[in-house]
Structure formats: C-alpha cells, structure tokens
Specification:
This protein is α+β, with helices and mostly antiparallel strands. 56% of the residues lie in helices and 9% in strands. It contains 17 helices and 11 strands. The strands form 4 sheets. A 4-stranded antiparallel sheet has the order 9-10-6-11. Strands 2-1-5 form a 3-stranded antiparallel sheet, covered by helices on one side. A hairpin with a 5-residue loop joins strand 7 and strand 8. The mean pLDDT is 92. The protein binds a DNA duplex through helix 4, helix 6, strand 4, helix 11 and helix 12.
Length: 458
DNA sequence: GGAACTCGCCAC
DNA sequence: AAACGTGGCGAGTTCC
C-alpha cells in the first residue's frame, strides 16, 4: 500500500478510538489510602518550608508591599517584589514583558531563599496536579484516563481526567511519589513498550537522507557521540568516562534534538555551555566540567582557540552550517522542498493520509508530519495489540499510551509474548501496511514488578 | 461566580 | 530575518 488517503486516515482514527475506549473502560488501579497519606505528608512538608521562607529577608520585603494580600504562590507579586522593589534585573522576560519567575530565572539571581520557594513549587505541583487528581478522578479505586484523537493539531493524541501522559518521570523524587500511586491488577505487572527514537526514524522516512538512514541502520554508529566530538573538538569519545557521557548528553539534548525541532545555534550555545558548566563570558583556565585527563573543558577549548562564550557561539554556528550543509544536506533539501510545497498548495499531507491546513509557521510545517506520523505508528501498533488480546482471549490489558509507548497491565505469563509480538508488528505488519517505512523501527520494553507500582526499584 | 487569560511546569 | 514542536492543568488574575 502506497500513498494513504484521507479515508485511510479516517479508518485509523476510527479503529484507534475503539481501541482507546477499551483501555479507558479498563482503567488503572489507584492506591487511594497511599494518595491521602502522601498528600498529608506533602502538606506538612510544604508548611514547614513556608515557615522557613517566611523567616527570610525576601519575604519581609514582600509583606511590606502586599500586607494582608501577600501570596507566595503569586508569581506576579514575586516579579514585582524582585524586579520592581528590590531592583534585580530579570535575566529574561515572559511573552508579555513581565520579568520571568520560572526556575531558571530565579536560580540566576543567586538568592538563597528562592530555592525554598522552588522546593515549595515542586511539592505543591506533585500534590495538587497529580495526587489530588488521582483522588478526585478515581471511582472505587480506579482511574479511567481518556485518550483523545480529536484535539491535537498534529493528529497526535491527548489525555485528560486525569492526564496519564505527563506523570513525572525526569525528577526522581516527584516520579517516585506520583507513580507509586498507580498499580496493576492483582497478580499482574505493568510493562511499557516504547519505540526507540521514533521521530528521528520517521524524519528519515520523509527526507530519505542517506547519512541519517545510515546512522539508523548501523547499530554501532552513534550520531550524538559524533556531534559531541565535533561540538567539543575531541578526537575520541569514550562513554565509559562520566565526562564523555555528559558531553554526549549535551550534544543530544542541547544541539541535535533542538536543531531537528527548528532551533538555531544561538540558543544551542547557551544550553551547551550550561551543560558543561561554563559561563557566557570569557573563560579562564580550570573552569567547567573536568575531563578524564584531569584538565577542565575551558583549558581544552582555549587550546583550540576558543577563549570564551563569544568564540563558542561562532564555533556552534560553524557546526550548524556543517550539520545542514554537509552532514544532513539531503534532510535540509527535503525541508526546503516540503515548506515550498506547503506554501504552494496551502496544505500538507502526511504519509498516513492526514491533512494539515491553515496558517502554519515554518517550524510547524516541518514538525507536524513527523510528529503526527510517528504517533500513527504507535497507534497502529496499539490497535493490532488490542485486536490480538481480544482474539487470543489474553488476560493482559492495554491501559494507556504516551505518544511513543504503550502501557500494559500484563499477566506475567504473557509478558514475553508482548515483547515478541510488538517486534513482529514493527518488523512485518507496519512495513507491509506502509511502504514509506524505509528504516528499521526498534522498541524497548520496561518491566515493573508483579503487584508493584508504576515505578521501579525497592 | 464563571470565562478567558497569563505563567509555570509536567510529559513526549 | 528569525529562531524549539505538541499537549493538560493548577493557581492567580482580570473582566463581565
């Protein structure tokens, strides 16, 4: 099957909604007593931190201005106190021109008591956005998160009531508290099967860039390590060294992904410098992260003629030029053709038949097809798994989906079947249905304890 | 008292 | 010349 039509897109949505509705009806167990205990514990902790904060100089100034209306969760008040009264200069502003009060902006001020405020923010978020929602939305100890296919401009999905797609994962403390609340059915275990770098694979299908395809076909190649070498001017990169691992992560999250999303070297340079703990001024010796040979990254850069942030920006600009001009030239040419085509036609059509029209910015034109199509691979996989569960009368149940992963409440005897079946689906069914898949797709499986929550360990 | 907005922050 | 894509949601705020 080649080009997909709008009717194909409709059929995918239709089957998807039916499969999602079965997951919604199934639901997920919530440990309600745990949620209430955790909520109470967090409230006490927050209260203690508030007391600590109220003893600070900053809070005294705040009270002088707002008196009885003082509200430490008001960022508008905070901005007025910091930037209006105390004379701090905001390092950045919000869209409407107000001095920013997000974590990054507050940390840059170097005011000790603000770290208390940030801790309060984090714990409040966990309590009010997650635990509170689980308690509010549960019925008889079950939540039934919705998965929508009609709300998103890119034809991805969304989730609500509660949203299962934004439960904390990156912050270990927040993750632990929130995910401990969710459990599989007795005698079952959660498994999560996720596509590896799915959007990059889909991008390769659209642009057919030979270099990008080679990276995805050769398991020994490593795009992020190669970019780290170029960005940090190293001949070799050994991931066994913690510093080198950091540099690879920096290249991945501070350059490659942002570039693929449409960012530019100016922003990348700031992020990369932060990753390696270098300032945005001139660099002296012995600054930044320590390298395996005991020297520091600033020594290394200076030896290569980069004496400070300004030089580094210029260097990142050159890396960007090489990235799109040489390394991924075919990708760049696809982007240019794709944008021109949209501007001629007034709409774009994804491989999966979905159409986006209306006023789209350049980055949207490039990102929508990749983001949407990637999700459709997950959706088709979800549908096929749902079919199989019914036809084979399995005990396991699909209970959720997070853009490129499936969450399964699995019977232990069926876990390895799922792993094998998903691999078969992505190797056989998907490429047979969609001949535009020209790179091998891959998945990883995360397995949680039998009768254990949606978090690993202990 | 609710709608619509801003801001911040969680996920991918 | 400009410059990071998609959501949901809570709290605060403003407006009607």
């Amino acid at each position: 099957m080649g080009v997909q039509t709008l009717a194909d897109a409709y059929r995918l949505i239709h089957a998807g909604i039916l499969a999602f509705s079965r997951a919604e009806r199934q639901g997920i167990r919530v440990d309600v007593p745990y949620c209430r205990r955790a909520r109470r514990r967090l409230s006490k902790q927050i209260e203690r931190l508030e007391g600590e904060f109220q003893a600070s100089d900053l809070y005294r100034r705040w009270e002088q201005v707002y008196r009885g209306k003082t509200n430490i969760s008001s960022n508008q008040q905070l901005a007025r106190v910091l930037y209006g009264v105390m004379g701090f200069v905001p390092s950045k502003t919000t869209k409407t021109g107000q001095g920013a009060t997000d974590e990054e902006a507050l940390l840059r001020l170097g005011v000790d008591e603000l770290s208390i405020l940030l801790q309060i923010r984090k714990l409040t978020k966990v309590r009010d956005t997650y635990l509170e929602a689980f308690i509010r939305e549960q019925h008889g100890g079950w939540i039934h998160p919705f998965f929508n296919l009609h709300t998103v401009r890119t034809y991805r999905s969304s989730s609500d009531s509660p949203n299962l797609q934004n439960v904390p994962k990156r912050d270990a403390e927040a993750m632990e508290i929130c995910r401990r609340a969710l459990l599989p059915r007795p005698g079952h275990q959660f498994i999560e099967i996720d596509f590896a770098a799915l959007e990059v694979h889909i991008a390769a299908c659209y642009c057919k860039d030979p270099t990008l395809i080679a990276y995805l076909e050769d398991p020994r190649s490593d795009m992020h390590a190669d970019m780290a070498k170029q960005l940090f001017m190293l001949d070799t990169l050994d991931r066994a060294f913690p510093a080198h691992h950091t540099l690879r992560q920096a290249a991945k999250n501070g350059f490659v992904f942002p570039q693929f999303y449409g960012d530019y070297y100016g922003n990348n340079a700031v992020t990369l410098a932060e990753w390696v703990k270098l300032s945005t001024n001139r660099w002296r010796g012995g600054q930044g992260i320590e390298l395996p040979d005991g020297t520091h990254i600033s020594d290394h850069f200076r030896a290569h003629g980069i004496k400070g942030f300004q030089d580094f920006v210029e260097h990142v600009r050159q890396v960007e030029d090489d990235f799109w001009g040489n390394r991924f030239r075919t990708y760049r040419e696809w982007r240019e053709r794709w944008v021109a085509q949209y501007r001629r036609a007034g709409y774009l059509r994804m491989f999966t038949g979905f159409i986006c029209s209306g006023e789209l910015a350049r980055n949207e034109i490039i990102n929508y097809p990749i983001q949407g199509t990637a999700f459709h691979c997950l959706l088709q996989t979800f549908i096929l798994l749902d079919d199989a569960i019914q036809h084979l009368d399995l005990q396991s149940r699909l209970v959720g989906q997070i853009h490129d992963s499936v969450l399964i409440d699995a019977h232990p005897s069926e876990v390895s079947w799922f792993e094998q079946e998903v691999k078969r689906i992505i190797r056989e069914d998907l490429p047979a249905k969609w001949d535009w898949i020209v790179v091998p797709l891959e998945v990883d499986m995360d397995e949680y304890a039998v009768d254990g929550p949606w978090v690993k360990g202990e």
